[in-house]
Structure formats: structure tokens, C-alpha cells
């Protein structure tokens, strides 16, 4: 029944083929006038045949003939959208503008826009980069940083823009292969997500960041606990360049997950190291550690078993004191992670409870600022690189994150757009119309990895070229030179405030210096943080 239901997508194509045959028979039997219908339906049949064979448009491969209606509506959308903007009915300006920008850069099209900005420049929260009357010209936009401190034996020379965590299982095999091949072509990294390293990651040949989450996939014992031997085998793969311990993700922080047995294929089971026919549970919390000190020792174990590759962790900031507990544990043990990835609550996922998506977790800007300043206050910011994730799609998004303290950025949304995601919001139904977020082999075949990988690499290259142009316009020679004062932000009263006023860099070492002044309540939280436990001290009223 499922297969028959899926074949409904080809109903229009099948119908025009049948009508072509019938009109030809009618012309031969009754009247030559039926040749007109034969020509029309024959042309549509040829169009449908072309649609299912061409690699450029996934929507046409899955919806031959019928899919052209989407492109017709796209042709008139700018006028409709402008009307919605003018009447305050445009509900998703970020998503639409971002998707349009990615498509243009991924396809190598001109991304200039006539008649200026579509942003509401007088709205609160609008921000911009200040430019210089003496701009610089930057020839090489292959911007890179070295990740790995003095405790790391295999530092990684990373691009400053990489593919954020998306698992095989949530994405199709074709999508994973396209992303990883694109990363290989462009010389940047691809985060595996918590679903571990699949055969399609390996086939692509691109650099990988192996994410270790609470399910310990790829390093999982039969009871769901962490298996050091299995981890060492996975982490030793030459393709894996860094190890990322996931504590939480922006879309649903503090929330576990379950992959029902009905959705587990043999390939997913192979990648995750789980049995077929059983529900697969990802707990909300890790079982390998329960205190900040134990967490640091676990990070050291991950680093040692990998042969000294860069090891860090990813989180969306929740209780600020808990992150300070981790930092205190770093100081006490002198186990310093090589990197921390700060995910924002605005991050996306295939399916999350509405309340979690909208009202749990700290947004990326505030989370990034807090992590950056806490590490500065503890005096260890120079030993830890910071990555940022959460709706980072454009060159401006990257520049803003770098100015607020990030060393590099990750993007899931942008690279999903690059492989053809149209935000149909059917990720959790297995009915993705373009073959990105589905395990249905018929739907997934619509995505051509060879073609889409070129788009992934092109989007990355063109975005960094745009970042280079923006960097030069600001009078800087490298994106790492962006600081908060290069940003301006519109306030609610329509006044302007400089970035270093809204998001200041706090003094180095002030948290560990008993004589230093407190800043913005950081010391008060620091005094309540403990390296021994995440549990808060008892509050006496």
C-alpha cells in the first residue's frame, strides 16, 4: 500500500502518457483532429521523461510534469512576496531570503539585488557592519584556522565555515553523499551528527567531525553504554579529523529522542551499531559521566583513544552556572578541550516539540557571548576555539558571529538548501518531496549526489568570497579581525548602539582574580558553580 501511495506522485505523468496513446489511436480510428491532442500530450510525455532523467531539479524527478507548477509560481512569487511585505504578512522573511541567497550561490548565479535592502532597517534588532573609506582587497578567501591546543597531537586546519551536524537517518543516503562529496571538493568539514559514520560518509571522502552523543552510536555497547574499543575503532578512521561530544542541540535542548524500529534500515543499523527490529533510544543525558569533573576525564579519554585528535563539545546554553561548572572543572583538572561549539535555540531539526523549538534554550548570539566571556574571565580563551551554529547562512551571519567571539561557524540550514531543500516541512513524515530528509528510496533517488555536491562546494566558495568582500569593505585583512565595534545595532527606540556596548568583551582573568570587579553578574554565578557537581547549591530564602 505504501508503494502504491508513493506512485501517486507519477499520476500526472502516467496520465499524459496514456492520453498520448489514446489520442493517437483516436486519430487513426476516428479523426485527424485528434492529432492536435496527440501533439500536446506527446510533448508533455517527453517533458515528463526528461524530468525523471535530469539531475538538476529533485522536485521534477519526484514529480514529473506536475513539478513545473512550482517553478511557474516561483516566477510570480517576487511580486506576491513584495505585497506581503508591504502589508506585514510575510511570516518567514529570513527563511525565504536565506533560501533564495543559497540557491543563487549554489547555482553560481548573480546574487545582486536591485532596489536595495528588503530588511526593515528601522526595526529593533536590525544590525549591520560598519565599513571603511579605505577598503582592502582580499585575494584569497580560503579562510582557515588551526583547531587543537597544546594537549592535542593532531591539530586540524579547518575552514571557518563547515557543515553542521545532520545524521544519516534524518537525511537520506543521497543527501549525506552529496554533502560529503561537496565538503571534499571544497576542502571543508562535515559533522556526522549523532547517527555516527555511515558508508556514505566514507564514500564521499570528505573530512569528518565525529559526533558522540548520548546514544554513543558508533561506540555503543549492547546495553547502550559507551564502548571504548568500538569508539577507538571509529575515531581512528583517517577521514575523522575531530571528535565532538554533544551535550544538547539548539532545536530541542535537554530532550532525548527515539528512532522507532519501523524506521531503522539495515544501513542505519550498520552505521549506528544497533540491532534491527528494536526501538533505538537516545537518552536526554549521558551515562558516561554525571559531574563536571567526570565530563573532563571523559573528554580526555575520547582524545587519548582517538590518537590525540582535537576533542570538544557542543551545547546550547541553558543554566549558565552549569557551563561555569564545566569551566571550573577544566581549571581543576587542567584538561582543556580543543573547541566548544555553541548552538543557538534558533537551530533547526526535522522534528521537535513546539514548546522546545520556541521557548527552550538560549539564542546563539547571547550563548556565544556568554561562553566567550566566561572563557576570557577564566583565562583560558586562548586555548579553546569556539564554533557557532544557529541560522548562519550568509556572509554577514558569519561576520557577526566572528565579531562576537566565534572562531568558525557551522551551518545545517544553508547546506540543506544547497542540496535542494525547499522547506516543505515534511522531514518527520518520510515524504520529503526532494529526497533530502527521507529514507524512502524512490523519493531519495531524485537527489543526484554528483550534481548536488557541486552546488554544496559552490555555495561554500561563494559565501566565503562574499565574506572576503565584506571583510575588505570593513577595512580588515582577515575575518578573524572582526570585533564587536565593527557592528551596529538598532534599538527599540530606533537609536543606534555599537556592538561593543551591546556585546562587550569582558576582561581576561577577572573570574579567577578575587580582587577584580564583577561584570554583568558573572562573578555571582561563578561563585555558585562547582567542578564537583552540576547540582545547584541550596538556596535559602
Please give a quick description of this structure.
The protein contains 20 helices and 15 strands. The protein has helices at 2-6, 11-29, 34-53, 58-62, 68-86, 93-106, 173-186, 199-204, 228-235, 266-272, 292-305, 320-333, 354-359, 364-378, 395-403, 413-418, 441-444, 449-473, 499-502, 522-528; strands at residues 127-129, 144-147, 156-159, 161-163, 189-191, 207-212, 240-246, 257-259, 280-282, 311-316, 339-343, 385-389, 408-411, 487-490, 496-498.
Give a quick set of tags describing it.
single chain; 541 residues; alpha/beta; TIM Barrel; 3-stranded antiparallel sheet
Structural class: alpha/beta
Number of helices: 20
First-last Cα distance: 63 Å
Strand fraction equals: 5-15%
CATH topology of the largest domain: TIM Barrel
Please give the radius of gyration in angstroms: 26 Å
Largest sheet: 8 strands, parallel
Describe the strand arrangement of the main beta sheet, using strand numbers: 4-13-12-11-10-7-6-5
Number of domains: 2
Number of DSSP-assigned strands: 15
